[in-house]
Amino acid sequence: MRYTTDLREGGCFHFGDVILAWRVVDGLRGFCAGTASAGIAFTLAFFSIALLTIRRIMRNSEKGLHPMGKQTTGQPLVASTGWRWVGERGLRVETGTMTLARYNLLISKNLTDVEDIIPADGSLLLILRRTARVSSEVRAALSAPLDVAQTAVKGKRHEIVVDYGGAAGPDLPALAKRAGMSVAAYIDCHAATEYTVAFLGFQPGFPYLQGLPLTLQAARRASPRQQVAAGSVAIGGRYTGIYPTGGPGGWHVIGRTDTVLFDPQRAAPALLMPGDRVCFVPA
Fold first, then answer.
1. 136 with 233, same domain?
2. By percentage, how much of the chain surpasses pLDDT 70?
3. Which domain covers residue 271, as residue numbers?
4. Cβ neighbourhood burial of 273 (10 Å; 0-12, 13-18, 19+)
5. For residue 57, with 0-12 CB atoms within 10 Å meaning exposed, 13-18 middle and 19 or more buried, which class applies?
6. SS3 breakdown of the chain: % helix, strand, coil, rounded to 5?
7. Would residue 3 count as lying in a domain?
8. How much is the pTM?
């Protein structure tokens, strides 16, 4: 029988390990004598316990135990395929191209065990309520097949007026040239698309808008700017986005809007939410 310091299998420090370590010390007593040798014996005991504890942690990690080697919230020992723990209460769920569909399905379930659901690029982060377990309801929602038609996110539609080019969009001419288009054609192409808010990040309220035509896509700038103006409309990789506040930025700036994307004084501080649709209107 083994006893742990916290009486849980997830515990990483076992009294059995201590006993085993002291047996090592007993075996050394025949070779140790005097104060100095006794000190060596205690040192060896300390390192024996440390090594055995590390071994225990590694074994628990291989078993898929909760982070930190113990189950502080009563979570299952082994995570389901497709998700992993992030901290004590977070579940990171791999979603690929179906992030918004899975997000909408989870939101529609009104899961009582889930405090928040945060979309990201190809994944979702579920924050469980304190003391909550990964219930069968949560597991079912994570593994349920997705019907794109039924789970399509029907967010609000926003029209955002943009002043393209000039001082407001210093990178526009270079991007248009790279795409083999005139500046006017580039603007028309960018404004003709209805975008979907994939997720928010980088700054409070910063929308990553998916749907950017392939011909307009461009890698981030080689040298980020130290200051990008608030309201700047920019392109980075396969996304277009809008800087809610001024600050450093590495995306290509093609225009600017006066629309306020984030206001902490509003009931809903962020203007745009995942699943919302955005159309740009040239000023």
1. no
2. 69
3. 157-282
4. middle
5. middle
6. 35, 25, 40
7. no
8. 0.68
**Is the Cβ–Cβ distance between 100 and 118 less than 8 Å?**
no
**Quick one: 162 and 221 in the same domain?**
yes
CB neighbourhood size of 95 (10 A): 21
CATH of the domain at 144: 3.30.1360
What token pair was written down for 246? 């001024």
Q: Which tokens is 121 given?
A: 């690029």
Inter-residue contact 216 to 186 (CB < 8 Å): yes
Same domain, 92 and 55: no
Identify the CATH number of the domain in which residue 273 sits: 2.40.100.10
Tokens of 105: 């399905």
123 and 55 part of one domain: no
CA distance from start to end of the chain: 76
Instruction: Please list the alpha-helical segments (H only) found in 8-135.
Output: 15-29, 34-63, 99-109
Average pLDDT, the chain: 78
pLDDT tens-digit map of 170-229: 999 999 999 999 999 999 999 999 999 999 999 999 999 999 999 999 999 999 999 999
The two structure tokens encoding residue 18? 């201590």
Are 127 and 116 a contacting pair, CB within 8 Å? Answer: yes
- Provide CB contacts within 8 A for 213, sequence distance 6+: 189, 190, 193
Look at the chain and count its residues: 283
Domain count, the chain: 3
Helix (H) or strand (E) holding 219: none
* Phi-psi label, residue 15: left if phi above 0, alpha if psi -120 to 50, beta otherwise: alpha
Per residue in 52-67, pLDDT (tens digit) is: 444 544 443 333 333 3
